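Data availability (excerpt). The following record was deposited with the supplementary files.
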Amino acid sequence: MVNTNIIFKVVKLQSEVQAKEYDLSKMKEERDSMMNTYEQRLKKTTEELSMERREAIKMREVMSRSTPAKNSASAAAAVEDDCGCASPSKLARKRKRACIWETECNKLREETQRQTDTIKKLESFIPAKKQLK
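Predicted structure:
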């Protein structure tokens, strides 16, 4: 009677151990699956962030090349000085071009600011390397 009771307990404990091992293996599989998913998301987000950074750098380069060294008031004065006794139509065309350049530069600045904000936002989603380990 004591032997059967002990055997029953041993069998019960063995089945519990097997059930725990099965649960543990399933949890490990789920964890590995989730880690793969998050690693893929991290890789994709990192690539997007790198692309945004490259675009922002290109925009800054374009802006630095297109932005005149003088401010708009002195640029208009320089246009008048360069024209000398030129006709009013040439002066008007040069002023119009200067105005167009200024609006394009402002648009590029705004676009760069939006991209910078996007980059900062994306960076906040990427966990630090210490957190990944």
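Summary of structural features: Residues 74 and 80 are 10 Å apart (CA to CA).
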